[in-house]
Amino acid sequence: MAISESSLKAKQLEASVVLGMEQFHRKSHFWGRLTISIVLVLTISLPLYLSFVLGFHPGWQPIMAGFAAYAAMVGYAWVMEPISYYPTLGVSGTYQAFLTGNISNMCLPSAAAAQNAIGAVPGTKKGEVTAALAIGAASLMNMSILMVIILAGSHLISIIPASIQEVFPYIVPAIFGGILAQFAVKKPVYGAVALAVGLTVNLMPIVAFLKGVVCILMTVAICIWVEKRKHSGAAI
Amino acid sequence: MEGAMQLANNPVLWIFSLLIIGVVVFQGITFIRLASRASESVGMSHSEVKTAIKVGTINAIGPSLGIMIVAVSLITLLGDPLTLMRIGIIGSAATESMGATIAASAFGTELGASDFGRHAFVTVVWVLCLGGSGWLLFTVLFTKSLGRMEKKVSDKSRRRGFSVMTIVSTAAMLAVFANFASGEVLKGYNTALAVAISAMTMVIVSFTASRKKHLSWLNEWSLGLSILAALSVSYYTL
């Protein structure tokens, strides 16, 4: 109910005012920071409530031990992921993707597919607005499916035959291959560079958490070099 | 285990969980609204806005189904509300199950073990909630600085005559997926096959869609079709 009401209101508002890109960014910062801050407060209040109101505090020692192990595994990603996905997600996409999660397997592919469908170039204003729309829609769809899973839960899984469930782990590799090809078709040179860099980096003994960054830096550097050569060649 | 499951389904957990999901939904609606208001100023037509929303929706179905199995296994270990809240916000099903396993072992037990009690459950909640906050905190604090950096780069490139930002964005996107795809290709025969079939299908669909004007709607379904093709081949070769 709440969703349909607010989307109705959204439609009325949408017709009334047109936003410039500058204003769009300002409003994105405001609403992005506000919503994420609220979620931050909520996520920290929950364990505080369980520990000190209900009185099931396990002691700080296991919490810190667990947190340290978790941070050692994914802590780099807290900083690296927002930075390395920023060029593709833009301001509004970053706020959305890092709240709703599933960035590499859902948000980025949805944004890329939408940009491809309407011919918007990533990194441009049109590309950013397209990404914002697609990620917002993907996030809402994801929430709806998640709610169904939680409500219908294990029953739902029991209807799907085991032989079909076995191929579910291949959804993610298929997404990666598909998106890579989608961009490579448009920019074959970039695609070839990226794939060569990707395979090399993955074959080399590089620490897992550095692979992504090394890949991005090398691919971007080579592609800029290629463009610069093309550009200066044309000028001469 | 029973005590932990009782606590895991405590109404207060449901309230927190639904509030968080509510904020995510509110954010999604807010940004769609903002973006469609901004669409005109970047030269997007009304039908392009609709297409973007439609494609976003379609392409969330595949990944959401992929999340399903991990989500269901988490439910049996952590209960409904915590699963909903953790998968609903940052943190994929995979990261969360890894975090829960780490937290349980830090408490000296295992997920689903008979001695996994209320205190162990609260340890898991602490670790997952603190762990997920890292991304949220960074995003709240530094997205603005990233925006300023981008502006500087694009201002500079305007003088140079070609848009560095466009190259960086496209190359970065390709690099991200080339890295992931390479990882999957090198992981084993089955995942390599899924990557290859999906990529081939995408190339075929993209070419078909660009060849004929009346087939351009295929672009909206290209990723879905590629995933389906890869899964069908995996189904018969497994």
From TrEMBL, chain A:
Keyword list, A-Z: Membrane, Transmembrane, Transmembrane helix
Residues annotated as transmembrane: 30-50, 62-79, 131-160, 167-185, 205-226
Protein name: Small-conductance mechanosensitive channel
Automatic annotation (TrEMBL), chain B:
Entry coiled-coil feature ranges: none
InterPro entries found in the cross-reference section: DUF5058
This protein's record includes keyword Protein biosynthesis: yes
Highest taxon in the source lineage: Bacteria
GO molecular function: translation elongation factor activity
Parts of the chain that traverse the membrane: 12-35, 56-78, 120-142, 162-182, 188-209, 221-237
Annotated keywords: Elongation factor, Membrane, Protein biosynthesis, Transmembrane, Transmembrane helix
Cleaved signal peptide residues: none
Identification of the protein by name: Translation elongation factor EF-1alpha
Organism whose genome encodes this protein: Mesobacillus campisalis
Lineage of origin: Bacteria, Bacillati, Bacillota, Bacilli, Bacillales
